[in-house]
Predict the structure.
Amino acid sequence: MRKPPVHTISKDAIKAWKITAALYEIIVWLISIVAIVLHFVLDFPLWIVLILILTSIVSTYLTVFLLPKLRWRRWRYEVFDQEIYIQHGILVVSRTLIPMIRVQHVETEQGPILKKFDLASVSISTAATTHKIPALSNEIASDLRDRISTLARVDEDDV
Amino acid sequence: MSKPEKLHPATIVFNLIKGIKDSIFLIILVFVTMFDDHLLYAIFIVFFLLLLITGTSILSWSRFTYRIDGDELRLEYGIFIRKKRYISKNRIQSIDLTQNLLHRIFKLVKVEIETAGTGSEAEASLLALSLEDGEALRAELKTLKKNEEVEEETSTVPAETISRKRLIFAGATSGSIGVILALVGFVSSEVIRFIPNSFYDEAYKWLIGLGLLLMILMGIGVLLLVWLLGILGTMTKYWNFTVSKVGEDIVITHGLIEKKQITIPIRRIQAVGHVESVFRQPFGYCTVIAEIAGGSNEKGEQFSTVLFPVLKVDELNSFLQKFLPEYQADNRKMHSLPKRALKYYIARVFFPALLLLIAVGIVVPHFIWVPILLLIGSIILGVLQYKDTGHVMDGRKLSIRYRTLSKTTMVMNHKRIQALNKKQHFLHKRENLATIKLSIVGKMGLGKHYFVKELDEEELHHVADWYSYRGV
């Protein structure tokens, strides 16, 4: 656990995350717009409107422009024959070791946004935990899924 | 036991009671709303409802069958939707036999079978079997391997029963004492505040003094009563608590009014530990607990299964030697935390208490002394948490120790740890500290996670190396 894992996830992840975040930000902006309209129509207090607009600007900057890049830079994974090694987290860096013989099942998943960029996520489940590698190119994700499921043998002492 | 068997007919009574209990609210509602004008209708509706409950109780009993076929327990049940549930014998986590008062009158037993599956309910719950049938079913489910020795040699089975004295001690130091101490502290300080005004008032000082004395005495009486009830509760629950090792299983029996028998296969145990609660630690006593995959209903210390309610910490080793030698770990050389971790431990408990202090200070300044005491307590707790936290590796076993309020030590086997996680934020990074998270399978088939916070990074890497299968 001294060194970080070597592989980065697909660079397109940044775009996919930006789009997802932007979709959420639309809702935040809608609330601000409603507040502005209310201010002019019904004398809704101005300071609340200003706070809402400020929150919208800050949160849009953070979730759409700043965080996806930082998040991508931190996301790393590496699959060995004996275990899977994952790193993620922006402020809190988290590194996880998952032994192959503890893996119960592995699955790939592709939502509409990931599909647009030909990406897929891989979820690895043990009896106690689930770990998700968020955005790999579809091909790598499938290979990874197949590789992990072959490597994950059943231990005689499973749960 | 290959032909389908029905439960004992008394199941109908249990179903009936459960049905009435579930619909009692509806019945009351009907009566309250219709009592004045339509009493006759109300009675009619309730009668109809009861008839319905009785009908479904009888039907669900008559439709419920169980049988053992090869290596499977097969249940068939359901009134409108027929359900079949097959449970493989070697997936069974634990078998619990419970007798409540009603069961004991009719010499019946409730059998609950747990697997590692998700959910709080037992996978198979047989409400009422005759005692012999229940025992027979249990024995049948246990005979998995063909070379099983006959379990008749009861004399050589290691067993341990709780002594009366210990039981009383367990009750006296159970959770209820904490509530009482807090109450005593609060009330007595309020009384002291109250005395000067009235006591030295000459006219009716004596009278009020007497009244006050009476009130104090009554207060003490109530507290004593709560405490005694706590003792009584613990005693009836853990009455005759016996743990024994039968072949590959740990069998636990306890209870005075509700008798319980729990069978846990040793290879299904995920971790074993002991909890030293604040009231027991000064006397050198602890509770032995085990973490078992699956949803056992047995709620004990921190929702884990209790292996023994009170034991001297010194006796722990011989206890484990007798029952679970694979979890006997050398905990003497715990690696404690580096000095620089202390501030995080204090901060974590200090700031919530400080917030409370500010809030109380603003809202009810009269009671400001309560959060001040809490604040002092929180600092002490933080220091204790820091001092008690540690870990040590012993062969293929990892022991960790931590304190929330009670000091807990858990021993887990390498092969039971499902994943290892290291977390480090930017402040930690500067000081080479990190938090380790160890995940095992716990209650209800969910993960149970143990943390050792603010560990020296290098020590964490040692644990990671020990855990890693790459053989670094």
Q: What stands out?
A: Chain A has a mean pLDDT of 90.
